[in-house]
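User: Before I run my own analysis I want an independent prediction to cross-check against. Here's the chain; please return only the structure tokens and, at the end, one sentence I can use as a sanity check.
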Amino acid sequence: MEPINLNVHPQIIDLYEVLEQNGLHKQKEEVQSLVGYMESMDYNLSVMMNEIQKMHTEIGRLYDKGIRAQCAKIVSKAGDTVQQAKTMVSVTKVKIIQSAGDAVKAFREKGKSALVQAVQAMRIPSVLSSVKNGFSRAAQSVRQSTERLEGLREQIHEAGGYIKNAGRALFGKGPAESEKLKADKGLLAKVRDGLESFGTAFSKMERGADRLLGKIQPEKEPDGRRQSVRSELHRLKAAHSTQDRAPAAKEQVR
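Assistant: Structure tokens:
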């Protein structure tokens, strides 16, 4: 899928313009918030994909072939998780562009009321909730990979102790091998720390979606009902109705 930058995409810019022209500032801010969040997450995931490649390079330096194969499998699974999250973001961005185009088209064909309905149909809170859940699952998956990698480090630690003891009996042959295991253990620690940072990053992405969701979710009215874009539609319809009645009222005065 070709990289998409929502910030400069023509359909997004068109939507901003029609929302601004029609005084729908709140709706514009919500769309801008969603766009900014998605672009930020896309960038972060691209950085993580690059880090996965560096991890594979580190793994190639491991002496133990068995450990190397197991570690490569774990990191590949983490890489799949990052790629899935990136695909989720990319697909969401495409849908946002399609929705923006539909909203502008609705406005040009049917006017402001249709524009408000079209923005409501973008279901921004639902989109953020879905993305939030996706990042939550990714964080959990990466943490499992981190735990598996830590298990490998424990295996090396146990093997190192065994070889060290055996080395005493073999007049120094063991310690040389133990140095290799020590190096492997250090490399695995580095890769493990990288995966651990992924889990932290995904959790931050999840919290970011949650904070943004809290900001754009409609606030409750005094009677407990939630305000929504629908209230804006009612206001528009009332305004149109008032305008329609105005000429008739003037005729009666005459």
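Sanity check: The two ends are 66 Å apart (CA to CA).
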